[in-house]
Write a structure and sequence with these properties.
Blueprint lengths: L2 E10 L2 E5 L4 E2 L8 E13 L9 H7 L3 E2 L4 H16 L5 H20 L11 H15 L8 H7 L4 H8 L6 H18 L8 H7 L5 H12 L3 H8 L9 E5 L15
Antiparallel strand pairs: 1-2, 1-4, 3-5, 4-6
Helix pairs in contact: 2-3, 3-7, 7-9, 7-10
Length: about 260
């Protein structure tokens, strides 16, 4: 959450972080936090916890810690988000999704400069986990991509695959499903794909059975894929990860559930 102008404070996990101009603070919104701010204008990046390539312990330690505005990675992230907000309306749904993921990669770079060392947070296991996540995102259309197949392609056991994904608080199967649904959501919101049927989009992201896709989509987003398309076809709503510019002052923000900011 890079701060643009103004000042304020965020309290979470018994830590109080100052929001200064150009700095950034990570908030885990499924846990209680308070944001006490005077005049502020900030760029906010919201995304599911599992998208950030940090282990669970690393992510917990990163919450409510100030990221130095002078740090090169933070400067890159601030500049990128500022330009991304200005260009967002002209991007397609899939381009927004890719741009949001790029922002999360920059955020991870900035956080690694400030997060205290956590056992198990680095090393070959983390590299392997990052490779597996990248593989999932680039092979969503492959209907054979399941947990066992993902483990086989990376020459590890299924049990070890589960151990690796525990680092980001999820399972391999849940991560694959989440990425498929995120991409389907972006396509349903994108006017370029308005001629594709819901069934075609389901197949494009690796769901062979339409009813399975519709059930999973409803559980994730609270409506059917067709209902999502009708509601967002003419809007500029952004799929996760999403980004927005906050301009109004805040006193205390109540936490949202199951997201990180």
């Amino acid at each position: 959450m890079p701060q643009v102008v103004g000042h304020g404070h965020v309290r979470q996990r018994d830590r109080l972080a100052e929001m200064a101009a150009g700095s950034g603070i990570l908030i885990e919104t499924r846990s209680h936090y308070e944001r006490v701010s005077s005049t502020e204008q900030s760029l906010n990046l919201r995304f599911p916890r599992g998208l950030l390539p940090l282990g669970t312990a690393e992510l917990t330690e990163a919450c409510a810690r100030n990221v130095d505005a002078a740090a090169p990675a933070m400067q890159m992230l601030s500049t990128y988000l500022d330009r991304l907000f200005d260009a967002a309306d002209d991007l397609t749904g899939r381009q927004r999704l890719d741009a949001g993921r790029a922002a999360i990669d920059l955020l991870a770079m900035a956080l690694r400069d400030t997060t205290p060392s956590v056992p198990g947070g680095d090393g070959p296991a983390q590299v392997l986990l990052d490779m597996m996540r990248t593989h999932v995102r680039t092979h969503l259309a492959d209907p054979q991509l399941r947990v066992a197949e993902l483990a086989r392609r990376h020459h590890i056991s299924v049990r070890y695959a589960y151990n690796l994904f525990e680092r980001i608080g999820t399972t391999p199967g849940a991560y694959i499903r989440e990425q498929r649904l995120l991409t389907a959501q972006a396509m349903l919101s994108d006017p370029r794909y308005h001629r594709l049927t819901v069934s075609s989009i389901a197949g494009t992201v690796g769901f062979l059975d339409l009813s399975t896709f519709e059930r999973a989509f409803r559980r994730q987003y609270g409506m059917t894929p067709a209902g999502w398309r009708r509601e967002h076809r003419c809007s500029r709503s952004l799929p996760w990860p999403c980004y927005r510019k906050r301009t109004q002052p805040h006193s205390i923000d109540q936490p949202h559930r199951d997201q990180s900011e």
